[in-house]
Amino acid sequence: MARPQSPEVNSPAPATGSGYQVVARRYRPQSFSEVVGQDHVVQALGNAIRMKRVTHAYLFSGTRGVGKTSIARIFAKCLNCVQGPTETPCNTCDICQSISVGQDVDVIEIDGASNNGVEQVRELRQNASLRPSRARTKIYYIDEVHMLSTGAFNALLKTLEEPPEHVKFFFATTEPGKIPVTVLSRCQRFDFAGIRPDQISETLGSICEREGIKADPEALLTVARRSAGSMRDAQSLLEQLLSSGNAHLTEQVVHDALGLAPDESVLDLIDALADHDPAAALQIIEKSFSSGVQAADLLSGLLEFLRDVMVLAAGAGTDLLGAPPAVRARLAAVAGRWPLDTVLVTLQLLSEARLRMRGNSQPRLLLELAICRAARLEDFTELSELLARIDNPQAAAGANSRAPSPSVKKKPLSAPDEEPRPPAGIQSVMAMPASNTPANQLDGQEPRRSTGSSTDPLEQIRQVWMQMATEFGGKLENHLLRFTAFHLAGPDHLQVQVPPMYNFSADACELPENRSKIESALRAALERPLILEFERQSLAQPVVRRESPSANKSLKHKDLEEDNLVQDLIKLFEARPIHVEVEDEADLG
Ligand SMILES: [Zn+2]
User: Fold this and answer.
1) Most Cβ neighbours (<10 Å): which of 19, 311, 334, 464?
2) Are 271 and 300 within one domain?
3) How far is the CA of 476 from the centre of ligand 1 (A)?
4) Residues in the 5 Å CB sphere of ion ligand 1
5) Which of 269-278, 376-385, 496-505 has the lowest average pLDDT?
């Protein structure tokens, strides 16, 4: 859509003085061919006109600034233009011109938010029964229609059921879910898509051209990306930039003028989150704030890139990415080392923070709180998955290769002397007694070097656990299945590791009746009593086993590294052993 849009009401409004019109209004699309990003809507409405199949009620749903009002007005012009009905209204007749500015006598625009009562709708119904004063059809455009009261919807429904021949309803909403089904079912519904950043920046480019402003494509793309698919928001930002008096819009000008966080800071922040480094994250926030970045803008930038990390971590193609090509390599590197589940929880935490930030007087505190919580999240790699990989390292290596770039090294942020550590899940696997432990006695077999086959007592317990869960069924099953990591603290002392999110499941299992059910099922299956302990993890601390005080350190790091299983683990996860636990030799019997 390189063609500049025709200005509203035919001549550009003066840029100064009382007649000044904001950019978003001045460059509102005036015909279907000028609409950006809603091809499916434009095509369907055009077809309806051409085939004379225009129905009496339309619902346009979509977020703000994606063109609902613009399309409603264009469609109204199509129907009522003196040269119509036509897909290409003249935009010069009285009717077209008055519809363009939302002031036509027969195209009545109503704000559903402020006219939401039964009385208003009754009045509307009375007026609707009157013929249009000069045009073919009387059109009611109700914006934010979901704001109508229940009574108002009921009153409206009567008109929708038997609409007068000369009346059409166009409804617009940002929340279609709040519209009664009885009303929805009587409308032809169009869902408006968010507009792609490249489409927005192209439109911004043509506006700058018309305004005589030089603008770098990267600068406009930055504006477009920060507008989250809303053309109106993008145009408002551009307005801000134009009013700052810069004759040449560069990326730096955009960042400075709009208080946006540079991509570099946002990427550093994501690295800090993936590295579980809240201190580094807070430093980055401080730096951004002191350069004038607002909390909400920093968070928006963060969410935008995190969404792309999620896309990459999920294994989807780069065509789904919104980030500019220059930063994709770094996003891919993060996606390669940050488990998808952790990315999802992080996104959720930060999205909630953004909601809470609206209207809050301490946005910075909320941002820092959310960032710290996100940085302290464990890596939610399913331990069962890790165990499966230990069973079959080759298959695991194959499965691993679909991750975008697992081998990319992290960029040091701060504290470069800090030892890199594997994700907590891996630590707990590595800390498990793999062999030579008293646990092997559970099944009465000779202690032997196990490579994680089902003779591994922990694996055996895991299987018993899963089976027990299935047999119990119901809610208890759901609770039990959340635990996949176990540790034998002693020959008959089973520690169940509770993932950080599932403390409530541990609480449920610890209810006396459930605990006795679980313990007796385990006793029956394993033919010995077990002390059951649910070990809740602090979000901050990776799982590191306590060292037995009387430990005889016969198994040193060196021995450990020579163990086949450990070597597989090291290779598989690019891990390194950081802690060796030695059980009391007396327990080996
Ligand atoms: Zn016309």
Assistant:
1) 334
2) yes
3) 68
4) 81, 89-90, 93, 96
5) 376-385
Q: Give which of 121, 111, 185, 187 is closest to 149, Cα–Cα.
A: 121
Q: How confident is the model at residue 186 (pLDDT cuts 50, 70, 90)?
A: very high
| Helix, strand counts (H, E) of the chain | 26, 10
Q: Are 512 and 363 within one domain?
A: no
Q: The domain containing residue 144 runs over which residues?
A: 27-191
> What is the Å distance from ligand 1's center to 109 Cα?
18
Spacing, Cα 5 to ligand 1 middle (Å): 17
Q: Say how many Å lie between the CA of residue 281 and the centre of ligand 1.
A: 57
Q: How far is the CA of 3 from the centre of ligand 1 (A)?
A: 21
**Residue 531 is encoded by which pair of tokens?**
């002390």
Give how many domains the chain has, as a whole number. Answer: 4
Assign residue 346 the CATH number of its domain. Answer: 1.20.272.10
- Asked whether residue 178 falls in the same domain as residue 229, the answer is no
568 CA to middle of ligand 1, Å?
A: 75
Which CATH number belongs to the domain containing residue 528 in this structure? 3.30.300.180
In a domain, 2, yes or no: no
CA of 78 to the centre of ligand 1 (A): 8
The model scores a pTM over 0.70: no
CA of 47 to the centre of ligand 1 (A): 19
Which residue in this structure is represented by tokens 């009391």? 584
C-alpha angle 77-80-85 in degrees, rounded to nearest 5: 95
Q: C-alpha distances in angstroms, 41 versus 32, 67, 70, 74?
A: 10, 10, 12, 12
